[in-house]
Design goal:
105 residues, 3 helices, elongated
Length: 105
């Protein structure tokens, strides 16, 4: 439906208006690219500083949330090890499967 709306909008625009819109996009592309680069650089600097600080930092409009490192285990290897050490199965928990809906790109 969204594609149909865009098609209908495109049909209403004259060639002159399309050219003007393209000109505007072309004029602002470098400015938007520079702003995105500055944003990315600032975000990386904030993340690095908060990671070094070791706790969440709140600003007026945003906060940088620090999370402790995750611990992971090699489940396949541990399952194999547990066959010879069945007492380990007492510490094993298995959750429910989950389903997520995603947009195809």
């Amino acid at each position: 439906m969204a594609a149909e709306v865009e098609t209908l909008k495109d049909g209403v625009l004259t060639a002159e208006i399309k050219a003007q819109l393209a000109s505007i996009d072309e004029e602002f592309a470098p400015i938007l690219d520079a702003a995105q680069t500055a944003y990315s650089d600032a975000e990386a600097a904030v993340k690095a500083a908060v990671a070094e600080h070791g706790c969440t930092v709140k600003g007026t409009f945003l906060q940088a949330v620090w999370a402790k490192p995750r611990v992971t285990w090699d489940a396949k290897s541990l399952d194999g090890y547990a066959i010879n050490h069945p007492e380990l199965f007492a510490f094993r928990k298995e959750g429910q499967p989950s389903v997520s809906i995603r947009v195809l790109k």
